[in-house]
Amino acid sequence: MFEQKRVACVVPCFNESLLIKKVISNMPACVDAILIVDDCSTDDTVDIVERLNDPRTVLLKHERNLGVGGSISTGYKYARDHDFDIAVVMAGDAQMDPEDLPAILQPVASGEVDYTKGNRLFSGDAWKMIPRVRYLGNSMLSLLTKIASGYWHVADSQSGYTAASKAVLHTINWDSMYQRYGQPNDLLVRLNIYNFRVRDVPIKPVYGIGEKSGVKPLRLIPKLSWLICRMFLFRMAHKYIIRDFHPLVFFYAFGLLLLPSGLLLGLYLMIYRIAVGGIAETSALFAAFLFITGVQFTLFAMWFDMENNRSLK
Ligand SMILES: Nc1nc2c(ncn2[C@@H]2O[C@H](COP(=O)(O)OP(=O)(O)OP(=O)(O)O)[C@@H](O)[C@H]2O)c(=O)[nH]1
Ligand SMILES: [Mg+2]
Questions:
Q1: Looking at ligand 1, which atom is closest to the CA of residue 181?
Q2: Is 17 in the pocket of ligand 1 (CB under 6 A)?
Q3: Are 206 and 88 within 8 A, CB to CB?
Q4: What is the C-alpha separation between 50 and 136, in angstroms, rounded?
Q5: What is the tens place of the pLDDT at every residue in 49-106?
Q6: Per-domain residue ranges of the chain
Q7: Ligand sitting nearest the alpha carbon of 131
Q8: Is the C-beta atom of 16 inside 6 A of ligand 1?
Q9: CATH fold of the domain at 7-241
Q10: Measured from the CB, is residue 38 less than 6 Å from ligand 1?
Q11: Rounded to two decimals, what is the model's pTM?
Q12: The three-state (H, E, C) secondary structure of 15-43, written as one string
């Protein structure tokens, strides 16, 4: 129990025989149940968990590999159906420091917010501790996720160290959540649609403890960027058209139409000017008009979105 709240810890596991023992044995006492979700490991992760015979551990086994998002979804559904008050997520590769858990739990337990997530970028050492490609890729995805999710105050979007309230557990449709590495981005968008309050909590980055990551940044970044763009459209439609209405969708629509049109036309005219010769002044002015209007529409749309989500901290 943490401040009178029953806490379940979801631990997604895929071939974590090296570190799962450490995760279970270091699990803080405030966690009432450790939900180990085995995502069809091919090593002896399951044997190790069974041999430990820890009284708090519940082993949930997938019949086929679903990915980290699918594993978290299995754990969340168990926590929801067994009436837990808070569900936290700590990966099976021991990259989440148990000492950070009270800070992650506290805002949700006190009812200040509905969802907290660890932010490794607050730490002054983040640049030194997080591998460079991951740091830069994460920063880019975090910026895209701010736009897509409407949580402009949230960064380190790829962090998986999170706590979700009972209301969140009972509201989100876990079967439709993205099943692989884009899960944190997908969930932030869904939380915003239901106006849940989300807060970042500073945590320590943990790398180089023998963990094996399945993340291949150069392949993953374009895939996740595309997912985040789709989720942005999903949020616009659900939050500002279907569930409620706000004219900012028109601002975004005009902005996203005019801004690239102005850019492309400007580029075309520039190439034409260099390769062929003179262009009409009116054409150049038209390109500038499209571009400037597009920028203004986009910035106003962002501003309206920011204002609309200001209370969700
Ligand atoms: N790679 C991988 N991990 C899975 C899968 N299903 C569950 N997981 C678990 O998801 C957690 C996170 O996976 P990692 O590949 O380490 O990704 P990450 O920790 O988010 O990213 P890094 O910062 O690069 O380590 C681990 O506890 C895995 O055991 C799967 O299908 N593939
Ligand atoms: Mg990892």
A1: 20
A2: no
A3: no
A4: 39
A5: 999 999 999 999 999 999 999 999 999 999 999 999 999 999 999 999 999 999 999 9
A6: 7-241, 246-308
A7: 1
A8: yes
A9: Spore Coat Polysaccharide Biosynthesis Protein SpsA; Chain A (3.90.550)
A10: no
A11: 0.95
A12: CCCCCHHHHHHCCCCCCCEEEEEECCCCC
